[in-house]
Known about the structure:
Helix content is about 20%, strand content about 50%. By secondary structure, the protein is an alpha+beta fold.
Amino acid sequence: MSKTLFYKLFGWGKIPEAMLPLLKEEGIVLGEEGLSGSVYFKNFRAPGKRYYRKVSWFTGSIVLTKIRLVAWSYSKPIINVPVDSAPFNALHFFLKDEKTLGFKFDSSLFNEQWSGDIEYRLKVSQPRLFLQHLEQLG
């Protein structure tokens, strides 16, 4: 999978250097950076925010270790959940197409003041492999 232009020019969407030692210690199963991604909000409500439908694009990264799933948008965490937790089991993983891994969830799962659905899609080189590992761990 080709890396985004922002990744090539500015390094946006890298796995944060500070996290690498911890992730390596946990045992990286799969990981990619410089990915094209999108986030979809449906009927989303949070203090000061309301979206009936909203889509935003980003460049990011994703890492699956033996212990957790972590993903970043512009090197800021968008998800960080242990694979043996209730929030991980509440995530719905899917393949949008042959190049896109997706996961969606009810936003109140991570913040009780939020409501509505959030869906992330990342263009990874091996989405089926990611999905197989996620389903095995979950």
